[in-house]
Design goal:
With 379 residues, the protein is α/β, with parallel strands linked by helices. It has 13 helices and 14 strands. It has 2 domains: 18-41 and 281-377, Aspartate Aminotransferase, domain 1, CATH 3.90.1150.10; 65-279, Type I PLP-dependent aspartate aminotransferase-like (Major domain) (Aspartate Aminotransferase, domain 2, 3-Layer(aba) Sandwich).
Length: 379
């Protein structure tokens, strides 16, 4: 039995939570990607100690911060990273947008997978560059971006590929051979890669995360990797992130305007991240065990509901559910009418799908699944 009580139901209403304050209290909100669990004790204690100091002046990056990140990457992903490759950022999302502008020319073309976390698509769209979406393929119930799909949208002006591993919303953890194929494609077509790897710390069911930049020297030279511990240790409202780029010229372009238009992180992001790196591993492993239980529960329940299909969840706490088998144009609204708020598929350009967040106590997830089942029976 875990010493951490993930079964504890914590009231998050009226805590200025985007996820919990949007809907009526009778609705179970399983849409936004944060967790209903207390952050690790090491993080809470570190932040409490910093609060008790009582002075929150302008701050700088802790002296050992990048060394701690580099050690963490080596320990967990066998990835040797020099500290000079690391640039601290306030969030992964802010970097997604800035890279779309900073690392491409005005006439450039950008490629994003489809479906994909909506901020990757919006970053391409709002960059002012032309862009196309490469449809992911479903292979053995895994959603994979293939070179076949990429070849359908590549053109002479293509300069940047937005990539997401583990994949959001599909939950895929890319295998080494799959990553090699993408790297080879980008080498052949001279594409930079912006890889969102924020869910790397939540790989489930025996899978292994491999940073795409670690595949080869060629991959490292053309990739900006975006990472954070905000999601893994549940402090997205008080966190930070980092970009990793070996290529000096690409790194300089990618980090342009950090500290001006893009602010430096605030003090609690440094405090929480350092604490998680130093002392959070025991909690993380317990979390993964609990998420694996919820993953199993979700897959079993959804597979018993006619008309619904769930893709394999290899990482994170997000499940991607196909509703193509039910005669409803807006499944998100159907489920909302029955008291469950899921992330609507139209956010990912697939309105016949929904995304569910399973980072919640078993009791809440079971009740939500009961409501989903009743919604389907009501059709």
């Amino acid at each position: 039995m875990s010493k951490y009580n993930f079964d504890n139901v914590i009231n998050r209403f009226q805590t200025d939570s985007i996820r919990w304050d949007k809907y009526d209290p009778t609705v179970i909100p399983l849409w936004v990607a944060d967790m209903d669990f207390l952050s690790p004790p090491c993080v809470l204690n570190a932040m409490k100690n910093r609060v008790e100091h009582g002075i929150f002046g302008y701050t700088h990056e802790p002296n050992d911060f990048k060394e701690n990140i580099a050690s963490y990457l080596k320990k967990h992903y066998c990835w040797e990273v020099e500290t000079e490759w690391i640039v601290i950022i306030p969030s992964v999302v802010s970097a997604l947008y800035s890279i779309g502008i900073n690392c491409t020319k005005s006439a450039s073309h950008i490629i994003t997978p489809q479906p994909i976390y909506h901020h990757l698509r919006l970053a391409a769209e709002q960059s002012g560059r032309s862009f196309n979406e490469a449809q992911v393929e479903t292979i053995k119930n895994r959603q994979i971006l293939s070179t076949k799909s990429l070849n359908k949208v590549i053109n002479n002006n293509s300069e940047l590929l937005y990539f997401c591993n583990p994949h959001n919303p599909g939950g895929t953890v890319y295998k080494k051979d799959e990553l090699i194929q993408i790297v080879d494609f980008c080498n052949k077509n001279n594409l930079f890669i912006c890889s969102d790897e924020i869910h790397a710390g939540m790989v489930l069911n025996g899978h292994k995360h491999i940073p795409i930049a670690s595949i080869s020297k060629a991959a490292a030279d053309r990739t900006v990797t975006l990472m954070s511990l905000n999601k893994t240790f549940n402090f997205p409202g008080a966190g930070l992130g980092w970009m990793i780029c070996k290529n000096p010229s690409l790194r300089e372009m990618a980090s342009n305007r950090i500290g001006s238009l893009i602010p430096h992180p605030e003090i609690f992001g440094y405090v929480a991240t350092n604490a998680a790196i130093r002392d959070g591993e025991d909690w993380r492993l317990a979390l993964l065990d609990y998420l694996n239980q919820n993953r199993k529960l979700l897959i079993e329940r959804i597979n018993q509901i006619p008309g619904l299909k769930i893709y394999d969840i290899e990482a994170s706490y997000l499940g991607w559910i196909s509703c193509e088998g039910i005669p409803v144009k807006d499944p998100h609204q159907l489920f909302l009418n029955h008291g469950v708020a899921l992330q609507p598929g139209y956010m990912f350009n697939q309105p016949d799908h929904v995304r569910i967040n399973i980072a919640t106590p078993h009791s809440i997830l079971n009740e939500a699944l009961d409501r989903i089942e009743k919604a389907i029976k009501s059709i």
